[in-house]
Design goal:
Length: 155
């Protein structure tokens, strides 16, 4: 038997053995997650527009609660902005959104965040004021409770 005949088959087997190794690889990795405290919201003070006359127009609450009326709308009484406490992870930033609900008996409330649309939770809390405007269109007399939604989400 010729030595050349033995070396060639061994070289072929070695190439096939090495080529199988090159087709598979493993790499260890990690799954990352940041666990935060669930956000809670509590309403501290309900927004109150006081007493307004039943005339078509808009009554707007400014920062701090001052009311002004449009188109002859008389807005008087004790006005109070809404106030919410948002709680969660200390130092986290939350986005704030208010969404109007349905009109009630000819009265539409459009809520507005008083200030920035985000807040940093200092000590795990932030206090947020809500103002906005009431639009009357063929409204009926009487006390009205108009729903809206206050939402806070982590950035």
């Amino acid at each position: 038997m010729n030595i050349k005949n033995i070396v060639l088959p061994l070289a072929t087997v070695s190439v096939f053995a090495l080529s199988n190794v090159a087709f598979a690889a493993d790499e260890a990795s990690n799954a990352n997650v940041n666990i935060v405290t669930a956000i809670t919201i509590s309403e501290d003070t309900e927004i109150d527009f006081g007493t307004i006359t039943n005339e078509d127009g808009t009554c707007t609450m400014a920062s701090g609660g001052a009311l002004t009326g449009s188109a002859g709308q008389s807005c008087t009484g004790t006005e109070t902005p809404g106030s919410f406490t948002v709680s969660g992870t200390d130092g986290a930033v939350v986005d704030l959104v208010v969404t109007a609900g349905s009109a009630v008996d000819g009265v539409t409330y459009t809520p507005v965040i008083d200030g920035a649309s985000s807040a940093t939770l200092t000590g795990g809390n932030a206090t947020v004021a809500v103002i906005g405007n009431l639009a009357l269109s063929s409204a009926t007399d009487g006390d009205k409770n108009i729903a809206y939604t206050f939402t806070a989400n982590y950035q």
